[in-house]
Design a protein that fits this description.
Layout lengths: L4 E3 L2 E3 L1 H20 L24 H4 L3 H4 L1 H6 L1 H10 L4 H20 L3
């Protein structure tokens, strides 16, 4: 029984792929089984090596969202101030902006400019 699928870009044989999958699984298991037998989970071995320094608390090293975008927010501060002034929180204003920008885009696409 021939399972080979011929296509314009080559052939695909599921039996051959299954053989390779089993072979690579055996190779992976051999590499995994030769790992360090002295490793013990839930001991001092799982802690990161920090050159003898005490590991700081998670709260001190946590990266906050404001820290990630600090450079963008600082560089574009004038832009954000203008956006904050335009932000009213009223849904009707947002719908008006949406319809206005949509009308401008439609006018440009139809050939007005």
């Amino acid at each position: 029984m021939n399972f080979t699928l011929l296509s314009p870009s080559g052939f695909w044989d599921p039996v051959l792929w299954l053989i390779f999958l089993i072979l690579f699984g055996i190779i992976g298991y051999i590499i995994y089984s030769r790992g360090n037998p002295s490793y013990k989970p839930n001991t001092e071995q799982v802690k990161p090596y920090l050159s003898g320094n005490v590991e700081p608390s998670k709260e001190k090293i946590m990266v906050r969202a404001g820290d990630i975008y600090w450079g963008f927010i600082t560089a574009l501060d004038e832009y954000y101030v203008a956006l904050k002034r335009m932000h009213t929180g009223d849904l009707r204003d947002y719908i008006l902006w949406y319809l206005g920008i949509g009308a401008i885009i439609l006018f440009i696409l139809v050939g007005g400019v």
